[in-house]
Amino acid sequence: xxxxxxxxLLTLVLLGTTLTMAAKTRTVRQMMDIxxxxxxxxxxxxxxxxxxxxxxxxxxxxxxxxxxxxxLFQPIGITWTRQGHYVMLHRKTPADPKPKxxxxxxxxxxxxxxxxxxxxxxxxxxxRATIYDATSGAATTTNxxxxxxxxxxxxxxxxxxxxxxxxxxHFRLRLQADVSHDFALQPNATLGQVTVTAxxxxxxxxxxxxxxxxxxSDIGRGFALLSSPDLVKALQLTSGVAPGVELMSGLYVxxxxxxxxxxxxxxxxxxxxxxxxxxxxxxxxxxxxxxDFYKSGFPARYAGRLSSVTDVRTKDGDHTHTHGGxxxxxxxxxxxxxxxxxxxxxxxxxxxxxxxxxxxxSTPIFALVNKGNDDKVSLGYLFYDMNAKLSHIFSNRSxxxxxxxxxxxxxxxxxDSYFEYxxxxxxxxxxxxxxxxMNMRWGNRNxxxxxxxxxxxxxxxxxxxxxxxxxxRYNYIDDDSYGKKGEEKVSYLSHGYRSMIYDTGADAQxxxxxxxxxxxxxxxxxxxxxxxxxxxxxxxxxxxxxKTDTISTSGSxxxxxxxxxxxxxxxxxxxxxxxLNAGFNASLFxxxxxxxxxxxxxxxxxxxxxRTLAAKLSYTMMTQYVHRITNSFLDLPTDYWVSTTxxxxxxxxxxxxxxxxxxxxSxxxxxxEAYYKQTSHMxxxxxxxxxxxxxDHWDENVMDGRGKAYGIEADIHYHTTRLDLAAAxxxxxxxxxxxxxxxxxxxxKFDNRHKLNITMQWAVTKKINLTAAFTMxxxxxxxxxxxxxxxPDTPGGSNKYGNYSYDVNTYIYERxxxxxxxxxxxxxxxxxxxxxxxxxxxxxxxxxxxxAYCHLNAMYVELKQDWNGSxxxxxxxxxxxxxxxxxxxxxx
Length: 892
Known about the structure:
Blueprint: H1 2-19, H2 28-39, E1 42-44, H3 65-73, E2 78-83, E3 86-91, E4 111-120, E5 130-133, E6 139-141, E7 147-153, E8 155-162, E9 169-175, E10 179-180, E11 183-185, E12 211-215, H4 216-219, H5 231-235, E13 241-242, E14 252-253, E15 261-265, E16 268-269, E17 274-275, E18 280-281, E19 288-294, E20 308-314, E21 323-328, E22 332-341, E23 347-356, H6 358-370, E24 375-395, E25 398-423, E26 429-456, E27 459-484, E28 489-515, E29 518-544, E30 548-575, E31 578-591, E32 594-610, E33 613-624, E34 626-629, E35 640-643, E36 651-665, E37 668-685, E38 702-719, E39 723-737, E40 746-747, E41 754-763, E42 768-777, E43 781-782, E44 787-790, E45 800-801, E46 804-805, E47 809-812, E48 819-820, E49 824-836, E50 842-850, E51 862-865, E52 872-875, E53 883-891
Parallel strand pairs: 1-3, 4-10, 4-11, 15-20
Antiparallel strand pairs: 2-3, 4-7, 5-6, 5-8, 8-9, 12-19, 13-14, 15-16, 17-18, 19-20, 21-22, 21-53, 22-23, 23-24, 24-25, 25-26, 26-27, 27-28, 28-29, 29-30, 30-31, 31-32, 32-33, 33-36, 34-35, 36-37, 37-38, 38-39, 39-40, 39-41, 41-42, 42-49, 43-48, 44-47, 45-46, 49-50, 50-53, 51-52
């Protein structure tokens, strides 16, 4: 029956084509789509073949594939061959024999493996470069270290390596044994129109949902807030991501919290990813090579967080010559340098430094302000990032690298106030001298030792040893002396705490490609966690200079835990139209003499519906054993990380995602995804209202709740050689449920129902690039009272002052987060002006404008009660105006 239906459907389609031929003539390419759909084949061809010519041939009397192929391609000088479900097209030459169908029964063919690395002209490995065999149509991509492996039939092959922004590299070989070959691609910044027919990174050809790739150059051009390019703010433009509070580098993905995002820097986790209380992220874009961002459909090799993964890889360093640059901006300055070490070009280095200079400006300013004043005030703030990396190539099979990162913030204030307020009859001076100091420090230190080794053409291994330290310190002192000079009374109060995390780990990951249809990854990782969430000390001194009473308190909390992960995944091409990525991540977590074991399955499937349309489905389960304890939505150093204890369960979530992805042309891509996510064991402080939550027995002061999030995301991307347009729309719901807080589901603070981002990048000329980004979303949610209720007047109550009585009212709250702030919207603009100096160095002026039309977006709700107490008036003030900035960059 099936053999009758398929020719019948093809006949009907072709009959309709014939009847409408007078109105519209189909091209050979359009007819290929029809034949591919009805016959279940895929075409592999060079983009330069003349396939857009009219098809004016009569339909074959017998609807066999071979006859259709002859009718399509013989008149236009194209030959064809078949291998299984693939039809390879070639330009006809006089030496071409008569096309013949490959016999259905073939002799056993020996297969060999082509493997190697893809790097650029300076030795930098290229991640996810495409390796394509034009002879068989087989293709693969390089892994995170530039390694590829492709198993092919014995015989002649035409291999092409390609990467966006680089010229293709061709390699012809006669495969008679396993071959190792490295590709060195040359940058090509003047590419014309490009049609890619075998890009394995295309959303149509990979299985992952919710995956976005960025390069360092994508982040560092165009708009930059206060002249500092920012990775997290670039990710905030992605559909399904809520930015949180304005100006902050928050990341709330598919309804998750800000602590549910895994940030990896060369394989090491970062706990503190922001500077300036969240204004900027801690990634120096000058040395970032590539970023992989996952918001759904996590591969099994990632574990430890529920909402997203941001895998950042830094540059390896130039192996041929030394170059670098520096940038001077409104808020900070940046410097980077890379080059070879030694004469054999096997060792390279890269170094990057970013530092703010607000402290350099504020010190002389406050010195002038305080001159001649009794009340002296000072304020200082700085942050810096330092990245360094050494890479050494032992051989084509062995490579070693050492990565270092150090980031730090320091904020300090001092108020020294002296006041003489009287002189008694004896001439004694009475005075008040008050000194208040506050110091805050926080940051990260990360070390990663990485070794790559190629065991065989099909097996690649990566071994890591990592160390991570996260720290935050806070000290506050109030020193007051007052009274008659020489007999002053003193009051001294000091308070401080310190939060520390030490992670020491090792992992081994293996990349095995037994054939062109299977890409298997497996490995294991162990981490030793030491959490010291808070060491606090308080000291209160009261008395005189000769005699004081002192009260001191201190406390500490230390937790040691062990985490072991095992993972395996296989990217398997089941058929030309079907592929899947299936795997699991099994974890074991030991803490407080209790062991948790969890098994997280991962599955992603792809159905290639046509040459331009694909459908995907993914299911992901995740487990998180660490939590960030906070009572605000700002990234404050008073927050601290803790691990799951014996009294609690680890956080756990599952997510189901389905989507359609289309590429109707080489310039246009569209996608629609729908997701549903459920989370259990979400922690929230039960009643603490201060900025500093107590650390002792913290697990007794939290609520265990649930969350659910669901929505639809639509993305469209159009690009030409000079213009790049993108739009991302999100319709979402984000709910919470805490039995101890509210009897029912309620909206999360960042339940932004609608979100729209539109971005444009336009290369006006070779020297001028313009950028615009428009953001609009539903406002964040707040909790406000809905009623005022009078309290009863009880005997001896507190609602009397002398003989005067007054009403005492209380507020009644309907549910948490019951009000949405007004719609948020703003426009950011940026421009890069390029120029080459007489010494051949590139010079770039960047001008950026944040909130170009100065719309003051509401940040919170301010309530005022009428004079008679009968009604409430609400006001939603906004504070962030237009913010211009400028930077100057030199590359040498």
